[in-house]
Design brief:
Helices cover 50% and strands 11% of the residues. It is α+β, with helices and mostly antiparallel strands. The strands form 4 sheets. The chain has a 7-stranded mixed beta sheet with strand order 5-6-7-4-3-10-11. It binds adenosine-5'-triphosphate and magnesium ion (MG).
């Protein structure tokens, strides 16, 4: 009884302290010398601890693994929670009220709670790879170490249970401290299994600002040709993460390492120009367009629209991106009236893309000017005029070309005189135009 009460008291104090100091909950884990060390970790959400506890209580092992653990140790925001467990899919499903089978072949079940979701995956080892993309078979295993061995980089091959003990057989924590991306096992063999890992190495290097270990880098140089077999979608996803990171110039490194086999001509982009992308908003469409503009300027792609389409971007991103690159071949106008005319002709996103491309090509602040124009709320389309076609028909205009042309003339006037976008004034003007 006394022990239960003492335990309860300890938990309450611990809870109060973590609430007061908010944001962090220290989790103890052994350091490499085997001593216990207190990490400053971002708080594990209650529902995640709950999932770990539920599985453990049912007699299974369950640990946080992969990116969430890496990002917690780095004190970076965690965007998705991966749990590795000795439980098989049917056991996972039976332990939780709501689950979705997301990748049963690979042993993954998504556990859904009112606070959020987690991907829960049975410990597994991967069979042989004959297509350089995904294992021919997977075997569910009871050993966590087997599961960690199949993972790509040491920093992604750690696990931590609810008790806070870190399982780190490949020196991931030390590599986090040294800021190094290093393959688990023989790099060339790991890249032959799945060529995407080469892109992932550059992507993590871009996102985390880490260097790539010399042996891992040498293997990328050796194995680059294997990237030809990758699907466009997988290359797109990794490239997009690089472009959206703080080091978009890593896309240039991927290019120099010849990872874009057949998708972009062999060549180089200057780091300085690619670095300009980091100053753009974190919007995929803008960064793709800026990247594409640089590739086009260096003659590394024939056609922006073909390139964007072949890398499987959606129709709108392709259209706005290609229009943006085209428009940015000439410097964008500087006057507000000209920018509004361009917005009217090309649409908002194409003009924003053009301004992003211009940032990459000529390092101008056109995007800021376009944003200022948009935020001002000044009218640049017939829809934003203070009168409608119906207002004009009420004044005696007949529906048809004349009415349409009158609205266009009013828009041209309002673009030059934004302060005059007022109903009475525009009706008066329309009647004068008719006379
Ligand atoms: P993020 O989610 O931030 O993009 P992540 O490391 O969580 O990064 P995911 O793609 O979510 O990446 O994968 C989760 C984990 O699965 C990784 O941390 C890694 O352990 C493993 N993993 C993912 N892709 C591969 C791969 N191609 N080869 C080997 N292991 C992989
Ligand atoms: Mg992840």
């Amino acid at each position: 009884m006394i022990i239960i009460l003492a335990g309860y008291f300890y938990k309450s104090v611990y809870f109060a302290v973590s609430v007061i100091f908010g944001g962090f909950s220290p989790i103890r884990a052994p350091d490499t010398a085997g001593r216990r060390k207190v990490f400053k970790l971002s708080r594990v959400p209650d529902y995640i601890s709950g999932i770990l506890r539920t599985l453990e209580t049912a007699g299974f092992r369950a640990l946080l693994v992969g990116g969430c653990l890496r990002d917690m140790l780095l004190d970076r925001p965690v965007h998705d929670w991966d749990i590795a467990t000795s439980a098989r899919s049917h056991d996972i499903i039976s332990q939780f009220p709501k689950t979705v089978r997301t990748g049963e072949r690979f042993g993954t079940v998504m556990v859904v709670t009112s606070e959020g979701t987690a991907e829960v995956t049975t410990f597994r080892s991967d069979g042989t790879y004959s297509d350089g993309r995904r294992p021919d078979s997977v075997a569910f295993v009871s050993d966590l170490y087997e599961d960690l061995k199949r993972r790509d980089f040491t920093i992604n091959a750690m696990a931590m249970g609810e008790d806070g003990a870190l399982v780190d057989p490949y020196g991931g924590r030390e590599d986090l401290e040294r800021q190094v991306i290093r393959c688990v096992g023989d790099p060339a063999a790991r890249f032959s299994e799945d060529a995407l890992r080469m892109f992932r190495a550059l992507r993590f290097s871009a996102q985390l600002g880490f260097e790539i270990d010399a042996d891992t880098m040498a293997a990328i140089e050796k194995c680059a040709g294997l990237c030809a077999a990758l699907s466009a979608e997988r290359v797109r996803d990794e490239t997009e993460k690089i472009l959206l990171s703080e080091r978009p110039e890593r896309a240039g490194t991927a290019l120099s390492l010849e990872l874009y086999q057949g998708r972009i001509k062999d060549g180089a982009l200057t780091d300085g120009k690619l670095r300009r992308l980091a100053a753009l908003p974190r919007e995929a469409g803008l960064r793709w367009c800026a990247f594409c503009a640089l590739l086009f300027a260096e003659n590394l792609i024939h056609s922006p629209s073909d390139f964007l389409r072949e890398i499987r971007l959606d129709t709108k991103t392709v259209r706005d991106g290609a229009d943006g690159v085209k428009a940015a071949q000439e410097p964008l106008p500087e006057s507000w009236a000209d920018i509004k005319r361009l917005l009217a002709e090309q649409g908002i996103q194409a003009v924003r893309c053009a301004a992003a491309a211009e940032k990459a090509l000529r390092d101008t602040n056109a995007l800021e000017t376009v944003s200022d124009v948009l935020e001002s709320g000044e009218c640049f389309s017939v829809r934003q005029l203070a009168i409608t076609g119906d207002d004009l028909t009420e004044c005696g205009f007949k529906k048809g070309i004349l009415l349409g042309n009158t609205l266009k003339a009013l828009l041209a006037y309002v673009i030059e005189n934004p302060q005059d976008n007022r109903r009475e004034l525009l009706i008066e003007l329309a009647q004068k135009i008719r006379l």
